[in-house]
Design a protein that fits this description.
Largest sheet: 7 strands, antiparallel
Structural class: alpha+beta
Order of helices and strands: EHHEEHEEEHHEEEEEEE
Distance between the termini: 23 Å
Bound molecules: glutamine
Strand content: 25-35%
Number of helices: 5
Number of domains: 1
């Protein structure tokens, strides 16, 4: 399934997060190292970030492979942000391949990405989904319930669809929230800030794996883990 990543900390360029590291998201789009479901993430990508003095996030999404975007490769070194969320997509069978199905989704305040799959028939109808794609429907439900209820929503949806994989990643410009439910997530904290990523983008020994079925919360004060069982 997809790979996603978020940053909270000192401003850094989109390229330093998404393109430059040896196993950056762009490399994970064709050669992920820890992906158990799917092989390549070539069905689209998205990057969202906060710019100074603008409360709402900016987004750039596409339904084409990240490795083919010369325009993004040109702009990414020139854009820096203290809060970034990015994803590359491997569409679940039957889901549309379109820009509006690529994460991050937004309600104008939060950015949200889903790494996994869910049976859409178990999801209560929620207004404002950007696509019929399962991840967009799930994002609409999370926005409707409130992102602070992320852990509760994942527990409830996981109970309704025991085969669901529900790794979610959200950012609002000042903090990050993430769940592990069926897929991998790693965290790297340094003096400059914190990265959450489906898999490490380099071999830095400080990456720590988050155990399954946990809620992770990142603020400028640090990283908190909560058991979701
Ligand atoms: N189910 C979602 C989609 O089809 C996410 C897939 C994924 O995690 N690869 O886009």
């Amino acid at each position: 399934m997809c790979r996603h990543l978020a940053w909270l900390g000192r401003p850094r360029s989109l390229a330093s997060l998404v393109l430059d590291p040896p196993s950056a998201l762009v490399v994970q789009s064709y050669a992920p190292r820890r992906q158990a479901h799917g092989t390549v993430n070539a069905d689209g990508w998205g990057v969202g970030w906060w710019a100074a003095d603008r409360p709402e996030p900016a987004r750039w999404r596409s339904a084409t492979p990240l490795w083919g975007s010369a325009s993004f490769a040109s702009v990414a070194p020139a854009v820096a942000s203290s809060c970034v969320l990015a994803a590359v997509r491997s569409a679940t069978m039957g889901m549309p391949i379109e820009e509006s199905a690529a994460a991050p989704f937004t309600d104008g305040r939060w950015l949200l990405s889903h790494n996994g799959r869910v049976d859409r028939t178990v999801l209560p109808a929620s207004p404002g989904a950007e696509s019929v794609c399962d991840s967009a429907q799930l994002a609409a439900l999370v926005f409707h319930r409130g992102v602070d209820s992320l852990g509760d929503v994942v527990r409830e949806v996981g109970a309704a669809d025991p085969a669901a994989r529900l790794n979610l990643l959200a950012a609002d410009g000042t903090r990050l929230l993430a769940t592990t439910w069926g897929d991998t997530l790693s965290v790297l904290s340094t003096d400059a800030g914190t990265v959450l990523a489906s898999e490490p983008y380099d071999d830095d020994a400080r990456w720590v794996d988050v155990p399954d079925r946990h809620l992770v919360s990142v603020t400028p004060d640090g990283v908190c883990l909560e058991d979701l069982q």
